[in-house]
């Protein structure tokens, strides 16, 4: 089948394209780099011609509240409209475990709005909720750093390797629409501070990581289990320490 991967040149999208191609599907990356812009609509009609599935793993270029809300509102609206006109039969979107619980953050408000638009579109859909990626430990640290100190909430996290996320998205794309949400997570549960320490150690980053009950996560206050998946989540195979060993 023809699968158009929006955001198909990024960390997750490029892996989804490669995996689908390996299994004999026509996987087409769609991004500004390939002449497709979901914000303006440029190239959408052309790239969606003959597509059975659209996978949206795109992300906002900025996490500033106004920018990220505008990105997901406009991009998702344009994409769903073009899909309806092209007769696409399955829309797959990548989102985040705990989105509905993290509404104190502008980013997660934007992701929730995106999910609501998809559900209301009338197009059969599947939403993949993933936990935080191994690769993003540094970004998390950067968002919570003042001076040389990273301050995070004393909560738990169950991060996942990006390759396992791409595999889950690819499987979902070639399956029947679930018209609901599928959760995926890594096999190990960490304290958030320990995950960030490990992620920084991979990069020989010597910042100090401390906990504070008032610590925020991308601007949102957290409860103990907000970043953890539910009991029915699909658990990936790659352990953090295995991934980290390959980064050195």
UniProtKB/TrEMBL annotation:
Gene3D superfamilies: NAD(P)-binding Rossmann-like Domain
InterPro entries: ComplexI_NDUFA9_subunit, NAD(P)-bd_dom_sf
Superkingdom to which the source organism belongs: Bacteria
Ranges in a coiled coil: none
SUPFAM superfamilies reported in the protein's UniProt record: NAD(P)-binding Rossmann-fold domains (SSF51735)
UniProt-recorded name of the protein: SDR family oxidoreductase
Originating organism: Streptomyces anthocyanicus
């Amino acid at each position: 089948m023809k699968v158009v991967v929006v955001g198909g040149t990024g960390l997750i999208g490029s892996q989804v394209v490669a995996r689908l191609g390996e299994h004999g599907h026509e996987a087409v990356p769609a991004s500004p780099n390939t002449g497709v812009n979901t914000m303006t609509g440029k190239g959408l009609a052309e790239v969606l011609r003959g597509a059975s599935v659209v996978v949206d793993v795109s992300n906002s270029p900025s996490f500033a509240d106004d920018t990220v809300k505008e990105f997901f509102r406009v991009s998702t609206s344009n994409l769903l409209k073009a899909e309806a006109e092209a007769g696409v039969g399955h829309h797959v979107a990548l989102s985040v475990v705990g989105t509905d619980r993290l509404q104190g953050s502008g980013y997660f408000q934007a992701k929730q709005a995106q999910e609501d638009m998809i559900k209301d579109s009338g197009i059969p859909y599947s939403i993949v909720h993933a936990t935080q990626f191994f690769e993003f430990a540094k970004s998390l640290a950067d968002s919570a750093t003042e001076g040389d100190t990273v301050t995070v909430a004393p909560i738990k996290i169950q991060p996942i390797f990006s390759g396992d996320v791409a595999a889950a998205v690819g499987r979902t794309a070639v399956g029947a629409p679930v018209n609901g949400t599928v959760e995926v997570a890594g096999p190990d549960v960490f304290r958030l501070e320990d995950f960030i320490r490990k992620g920084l150690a991979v990069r020989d980053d010597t910042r100090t990581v401390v906990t504070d009950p008032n610590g925020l996560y991308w601007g949102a206050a957290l409860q103990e289990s907000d970043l953890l998946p539910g009991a029915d989540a699909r658990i990936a195979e790659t352990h953090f320490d295995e991934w980290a060993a390959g980064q050195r």
